[in-house]
Specification:
Layout (H helix, E strand, L loop, with lengths): L18 H6 L4 H9 L2 H11 L11 H6 L10 E6 L10 H6 L1 H15 L3 E6 L4 H16 L15 E6 L9 H5 L1
């Protein structure tokens, strides 16, 4: 059976890290649909049906994870993208951060809508300088174009993302240490 590449199908093309390239291959259309015509529960159900799983070792079902969030709780919800990649021998995030950062931003926008979050944080391994630069550039492009901010994609949904670079210790990427 031939391999079907989903996340890296445009790998090797020129300037895949730029907004221009990402939009040329349909980028941000899913986020626009999610923000303008779907509620959080519908998004979660769609993700459950898709079979999407996390990229960690357990491959935990993403829709199930999102469904654990109590959306009725009025307290702010924070979306955290752990891109520390601190497990020994792993190299699953870096290519996405450096070559497809807008894909990650779009995924965070969709996740934010699903769980009713208006603030996201991306934690990137301290040694990944190019990754951090590319992700920050993608976020800057997204703000400049109105993809992020107080009126994401012209839908009225507010979502902001901030990048934090790690200190280079494995414990920094552990989930409770990361949030603290």
């Amino acid at each position: 059976m031939p391999e079907t590449k989903v996340l890296t199908k445009h790998r090797g093309e020129k300037d895949t890290h730029t907004l221009a390239h990402y939009e040329s291959v349909g980028g941000y259309k899913a986020a626009k649909k999610a923000l303008s015509s779907m509620d959080g529960d519908a998004l979660i159900e769609e993700v459950k049906k898709s079979g999407l799983r996390g990229r960690g070792g357990a491959g935990f079902p993403t829709g199930m994870k999102w469904s654990f969030i109590n959306k009725k709780n009025p307290k702010p919800k924070y979306l955290v993208c752990n891109a520390d990649e601190g497990e020994p021998g792993t190299f699953k995030d870096r290519v996405l951060l450096e070559e497809f950062p807008h894909m990650m931003v779009e995924g965070m926008i969709i996740a934010a809508k699903a769980i009713d979050s208006h603030q996201g944080y991306i934690y990137i391994r301290g040694e990944y300088h190019l990754s951090c630069d590319r992700v920050q550039a993608a976020i800057d492009e997204a703000y400049a174009k109105g993809i992020l901010g107080k009126n994401c994609l012209g839908t009225g949904y507010a979502f902001d993302i901030a990048v934090y670079q790690g200190a280079g210790a494995y414990i920094c990427g552990e989930e409770t240490a990361l949030i603290n």
